[in-house]
Amino acid sequence: MRVLRVLEEIDADIVALQEADLRFGRRAGAIPQFLIERHSDYSPVPFDVQTDSLGWHGNTILVRDGILVEHHDIVHIPYLEPRGVVLSHVTVGTLKLAIFGMHLDLSGLWRTRQARAIMELAKDVEDDRSTLLMGDLNEWRSTGGCLREFSRHLTVLDCGRSFHSRRPIGKLDRIMHSSCLAAIDCGVHRSDLAFRASDHLPVWASFKVDRLESAERQS
């Protein structure tokens, strides 16, 4: 419920969560789906990987009610420890988006490999729709490593220090976007509830869409 209350504070249209599933046993959702349905304006993208699970290797995407989910998939990436990416194609009004939610490896070498694999997929869809990538990159460097790979093709937003929530020193959580989206603003959401809800503070960004007239969306 604390997480859902934080999402209510942020009031985003699209949310990417990490560690949304328990790591052991049936790997059920850490946030039961009935709580999401009863106490929020969001619906989980139905990845349908495991019974009672919200996503894939803890990654999931929530969309505000009324946003059309056209396609969803899980993405296998190279890994040292079990990692994955979730992908969803959505339509927000007349805007078509490809959303990638991710939680990358602790190893720098494997993060770079994962970034390359993700970018190959992102480039495949960029002719059809705008792309938005979000998640915990586990990258402590400000420009190197996997950030270098992502920045070859995307704008990597500097939302701010999000880890550890009690005393943030690392910019581990990032939002990245393709060229047809323009960021209006971005930052780290800080509140008494956010400090207690997770060991990471949420990052956010607001966008305007260059190809559409006066369209503004937040994710």
Describe this structure in words.
With about 220 residues, the chain is α+β, with helices and mostly antiparallel strands. It has a single domain, classed as Endonuclease/exonuclease/phosphatase (Deoxyribonuclease I, Chain A, 4-Layer Sandwich). It has five helices and twelve strands. The strands form three sheets. A six-stranded mixed sheet has the order 4-5-6-7-9-8.
How is the largest sheet built, in terms of strand order?
Answer: 4-5-6-7-9-8
CATH architecture: 4-Layer Sandwich
First and last CA, distance: 20 Å
- What is the typical, i.e. mean, pLDDT? 91
Instruction: Please give the largest β-sheet.
Output: 6 strands, mixed
Shape: globular
Could you state the order of secondary-structure elements as H and E?
HEHEEEEEHEHEEEHEE
CATH fold-level assignment:
Deoxyribonuclease I, Chain A
Radius of gyration: 16 Å
Proportion in β-strands: 25-35%
Low-pLDDT stretches:
212-217
Number of strands: 12
Structural class: alpha+beta
Number of domains: 1
Query: Given the structure, what is the number of helices?
Result: 5
